[in-house]
Design goal:
The chain has about 240 residues and is of the alpha/beta class. It has ten helices and ten strands. The two termini are about 30 Å apart. Bound molecules: adenosine-5'-triphosphate and magnesium ion.
């Protein structure tokens, strides 16, 4: 479903990836792994129209996203949902308005319908209906992440991109978030691409993953393959932290 081919990325002439290749299958939960500063977020950004590769290509469903026509790009942007690493909610809007923001911007539903759709996503991510009128400052860390997830899902994307969905969560909330991500994939049949540092998520929910190290993709495959790979690349990764 998503194919990265020979992707080179640079910031101010400094190379971050020197020829990244990967292959994400439809319906899987795919992980982007690597040490801090290795370029996981940058790689994610090449798939969501935020960082154009210096060379190479990213194809989603056969379309080379950086070479598509502007209209085609606009359509594709509406088919992806994104939850950022430091994805702040709008502090002056309540939960329901935060979830509905993309719908207000990009859909033609009237405000009542938008509220109904936002409520549906609120329930889907496991929040109670009475939390819809709360403001971000009144939410726990886990609840904020769920609101951000509901916002990313609001336009019913085909691919969901998550940057460190568990960061800052206590272990119990992190496991609950893992179960939610799995449930969303299973019930909506979408593809999930996520950056993670969380060893439990790697073991529990990723179908396949890649590991970035020293500007290169040093591994792509599933957990079993990683554990059997020469010098298990996960061992390096977790020694590195
Ligand atoms: N907008 C930017 N301008 C210049 N350099 C950047 C920019 N964004 C990232 N970088 C650099 O690119 C490298 C990779 O950053 P990136 O954020 O992709 O890493 P990461 O693997 O997501 O790290 P972390 O685990 O800390 O989130 C880092 O050296 C970083 O300083
Ligand atoms: Mg990052």
């Amino acid at each position: 479903m998503i194919i990265g081919k020979d992707i080179v990325t640079t910031y101010n002439g400094i190379t971050i990836h020197e020829g990244a290749n990967f292959h994400i299958k439809s319906g899987e939960i795919y992980g982007l792994l690597g040490g801090s500063g290795s370029g996981k977020t940058t790689l994610l950004k090449t798939m969501i129209f935020l960082k154009e590769p210096t060379s190479g290509s990213v194809k989603i469903n056969g379309v080379d996203i950086w070479r598509a026509l502007p209209k085609e790009q606009q359509d594709m942007k509406l088919q992806i949902g994104v939850m950022f690493q430091f994805g702040a909610l709008f502090s002056n809007m309540n939960v329901l308005d935060n979830i509905g923001i993309m719908l207000r911007e990009y859909s033609e539903f009237d405000p009542n319908d938008i509220d109904e759709i936002a409520k549906m996503w609120l329930i889907k991510v496991g929040l109670k209906p009475n939390s819809m009128t709360l403001y971000p400052s009144e939410l726990s860390g886990g609840m904020k992440k769920r609101v951000a997830l509901a916002r990313a899902l609001a336009l019913s994307p085909r691919v969901l991109f998550l940057d460190e969905p568990n960061s800052g969560l206590d272990p119990i909330s992190a496991r609950a978030m893992d179960r939610l991500i799995c449930d969303i994939r299973d019930s909506l049949g979408i593809t999930v691409v996520m950056v993670t540092h969380d060893i439990d998520s790697i073991f529990n929910i990723l179908d396949r993953f890649l590991i970035v190290d020293n500007k290169k993709i040093v591994f792509e495959g599933d957990l079993k393959q990683a554990l059997e790979f020469k010098d298990n690349p996960l061992k390096d990764l977790f020694a590195m932290r």
